[in-house]
Each structure stands twice: as C-alpha cells, then as structure tokens.
Design a protein that fits this description.
Elements lengths: L4 H6 L15 E5 L5 E5 L8 E3 L1 H12 L6
Antiparallel strand pairs: 1-2, 2-3
Amino acid sequence: MDVTPEQLRDATWRRATRSGDAGDCLEVAPLPGGRVGIRDSEHPEIGPFVVSGSVWRAFVDGARKGEFDF
C-alpha cells in the first residue's frame, strides 16, 4: 500500500500507555484511505508497515481474544 512521505510525516503516531517511557514498543497511526501504519518506536526512520483498516481491526480483535498470547 503506497503512502507518501507527506502522509507519514503528518501522521499522528501513538503508542500504548502501558509501554511507558522505555521507547521499545510499536507505534500506530491512522492514515488516509482507512489504512493504518505500524512502526518500531526505536527506529521511526525505517518505513512503517502499512495495512488496511480491516486487517488492523482483525488483529486488534484477535489480540483482545488472546489469540497471540504466548
């Protein structure tokens, strides 16, 4: 999914409040077209992984249900 540099620059990146100030977590941002960007907070200069809104919602739903618990 193509994203312009301007869209990434202007995106509002956020991370879970539980991550604290350590900086070692993932950040997410809503992007135009219903897409969601996901990036490593330790390396924000590396391009994010961009998924459709439906993929993001499926991931969040699975996480809430414990599908990814180790």
